[in-house]
Amino acid sequence: MRLTHLSLGIAFGLLTTASAFAAEAIDTKRLHPKHVEFEFEGPFGTYDRGALQRGYQVYKEVCAACHAVDHLAFHALGEPGGPEFTEAQVRALATAAKVPAEPNDKGETTDDKGTPLMRSATLADHLPAPFPNENAARANNGGALPPDLSMIVKAREGGAAYVYAILTGFHEKAPAGFKVTEGKYFNPYFEGWNIGMPPPLNANSVTYSDGTKATIEQEAHDVVTFLAWAAEPKMEERKRVGFGVMVFLIAFAGLLFAAYKKVWKDVH
Amino acid sequence: MSGPSTYNPQSGFERWLDSRLPLPRLLHDTIHTFPTPKNLNIWYTFGGILAFCLGVQIVTGIVLAMHYVANANLAFNSVEGIMRDVNYGWLIRYIHANGASMFFLAVYIHMFRGLYYGSYKAPRELIWIIGVLIYVLMMATAFFGYVLPWGQMSFWGATVITNLFTAIPVVGGHIATWLWGDFAVGDATLNRFFSLHYLLPFIIAGVVGLHIWALHVPGNNNPLGIDVKSPQDTVPFHPFYTVKDAFYLTLFVILFAGFVFYAPDFFGNPDNYQPANPLVTPPDIVPEWYLLPFYAMLRSIPNKLLGVIVMAGALVTLVFLPWLDTSRVRSCRFRPLMKQFFWVFVVACVLLGYCGSQSVDAVKLGIPMVWVARIASLYYYAFFWLILPIVGLIETPKKLPASISQSVLPSAAPAE
Amino acid sequence: MAATISDAGTTRRDFLYVATGAVGGVGVAAAAWPFIDQMNPSTAALAMGSTEIDLTAVQPGQQIVYKFRGQPLFVRRRTPAEIASAKDVDVSALPDPLARNLNLPDSTLANDADRATKPEWLILVGVCTHLGCTPTVSTPQMPEGDYGGWLCHCHGSMYDTAGRIRKGPAPQNLLVPQYTFLSDTRVKVG
Predict the structure, then answer these.
(1) CB contact under 8 A, A151 and B273
(2) For residue range B337-354, what is the model confidence (pLDDT) as tens digits?
(3) pLDDT in tens, B178-203
(4) Phi and psi for B184 in degrees, rounded to 5?
(5) Residues near A130 by beta carbon (within 8 Å), at least 6 away in sequence
(6) Contacts of A252 in chain B (CB under 8 A)
(7) Which chains have 3+ CB pairs within 8 A of B?
(8) Would you give the DSSP letter of residue C101?
(9) A-chain residues within 8 Å CB-CB of C27?
(10) Chains in contact with C, counting 3 or more C-beta pairs less than 8 Å apart as contact
(11) Is C153 a catalytic residue?
């Protein structure tokens, strides 16, 4: 009996040790983002206006609760190459947003209860952040800092595909032996597989005003398109100017080649 | 070849100007009638391309400085303001950032050309040494410039490189503090780096003037490595090389434009689109690609001070090159043994660059990259200090043609 | 051209060189434009270039001073007496008979109706047309100048209740900027 207990105990100890070793042996390097195509890729790619406007809606209704887009100003929402909201729409969006107000006549910036005084945003203002500073952001998110999203597509290896993979990667099952850290969520497309963000998107998280079906993939595709524009609002202008420049340069090179051959024709 | 001036002022105004400030004469003699060997190939066009790159960097840089703010709290946002709000700011910024990479691409081709054709040999030793000085100034300028956007790589690259000075015994720590202007890289450092980044290109321009002046004394080398014997060996710089250089420059600009308009972040690092955070180190700190070979040399030595010495020594070695090569033949076209060692040297430099881009403990195909870096660094030093002196003495060079004009006659054997 | 080029085929060769040079010149000009345009106001500056002002807090006889495009903007809610005194003026006898109103053609005369489209609201750029100082507003409690409008303390220019110059070295009436009333209590300037 004692021997059985002993052997069982040793076996159990070995097994748990083995599984612990097995857990350490799992490489938690992030998975390569799945292949996904966006219309703005390639030398002639442009942003899909509808996707940008839907993506803005996803950002505003889902992501803006925790993530700022500090480099985006309201006037950018109406400029060519972006969502191209009309001026009236942009003014409405700006007026609906609140930003900290300048000191009032008494020099106060908060009311009697200590709440900061707010005013409507103007076109010149940048989109307001959900938290006034980093500490407030961390306090509201279990110690994790939701990064600013205005540059995220350019600031991550893998770009738009990486962000899309993160947003759509929450449903994957963790492999046997991998224990998700307390307070975090499993996402194999994030380095270390433990991400502080809870799955942000569900089917019909937003109701699209243009009637598009709001699947997780659609929402992710639209918000990633919006974020790609937010990181590089001048992309369409860049590719358009680039085309003209390349055509000119190739033609000019042709002319110069002819001139070069003519100049050197009789040498030697 | 510098000789008596061939300028003949035509109009009254030209004579008036010539007797007071002979600038047209200088231009006429140096870029109009200057006798240039007629057999220069594509590898000789990069000097002109480099002058163009310097001009582009200065013009785009001055314009960027109209909008950039060199303050740790404002720098990152000011660069994004340039990208988003300044008219064509995105274009000027991308030209400046990619221009730095194109500048170094051109300078490496230019330097390898000099190595291959023996352009550093007598009487052109000083041109080579001035060139090494320009190269070092370029590296310093690029280093200061990369810090300015104040992204994660800007900050941590500055931290790593300025910390190298702490390797110097006794005074190292004080030198580092003096460079920082603070206890660590910070706002004080950023401000002085901006000032120096603005200054150095003009010093480079001056040294480039010396470089060209020194070149115009003996005149250009050529792919055969033999001296100009008669005027039949040369053509006037204009229109022959003005037009030829313009053509090759346009091809270069096509490549440049390809990056600027279609892959503007190809040479960059995504981490630099994150604002600098002194409390969070990025997992892999890497400099821009053109500094990677030296970065690899530095990291291949486990000792901090020795690593610095090996890295700096690689640059100092270049200064001694004219005296390390014992061969009396200039061009590798006629040096069958040296040619092979040269190409191995090129491979070693590319390998060093690759090692620099990987993390220190990287293992590829079962080989630890740090050992590849060590062997490549060893070859770098051996190439200059052992191979060049020894091969020059033992090699049997091929027969040199009698003259440049002779070699381009149809009856001559095709050159490589 | 250098003497080593033969003279045969000159016309065609010269045309090639001229064409190449011309195309190159066009390229240089096109390349120069971004460097010139970047000094123009950026989209951020232009976004600051128009502002909306809430008028609900302004009482009759009161003026608020707003900062607009880096300069003071006077928004004055005129009393009926001030409006009347502004209308009771022979425009042709004024030192500056033009309206100086950016919402109207340049030749419009300085009638009060052409200085303030809604007579109660007078909106002016608060920069004295002499040398740029900010004039002080005149109120019944603290009169400034002889015309009930503004007095510029720098060199003594006096403006009336329609912001027109009446006395002193200033050559022109105070400028009326572009503005549109979005509602009775909200005006967009610029």
Answers:
(1) yes
(2) 999 999 999 999 999 999
(3) 999 999 999 999 999 999 999 999 99
(4) -160, 175
(5) A64, A65, A66, A67, A68, A137
(6) 250
(7) A, C
(8) B
(9) 248-249, 252
(10) A, B
(11) no
Count CB neighbours of C22 within 10 A: 11
- Gap between the Cα atoms of C40 and B110, Å rounded: 39
Catalytic residue among C67, C155, C186, C188: C155
What Cα–Cα distance (Å) separates residue C43 from each residue in A51, B85, B270, C31, C66? 24, 5, 26, 21, 21
Q: Chain C within 8 Å of B95 (Cβ-Cβ)? A: no
- Indicate yes or no: CB of C50 within 8 angstroms of CB of A251: no
Per-residue DSSP letter, B414 = P
Q: What is the pLDDT of residues B361-389, one digit of tens each?
A: 899 999 999 999 999 999 999 999 999 99
CA dist A44 → A238, B85, B404, C161 (Å): 10, 23, 49, 59
As for the ipTM of the complex, it is 0.92
Instruction: List CB contacts (< 8 A) between C37 and chain B.
Output: 87-88
Query: Which residues 6+ apart lie within 8 Å of A7 measured at CB?
Result: none
Structure tokens given for B255:
């490549």
CA–CA distance, B64 with C39 (Å, rounded to integer)? 10
**Cβ separation of A76 and C43 shorter than 8 Å?**
yes
Given C17, C44, C52, which is nearest A122 (Cβ)?
C52
CA distance B66 to B87: 12
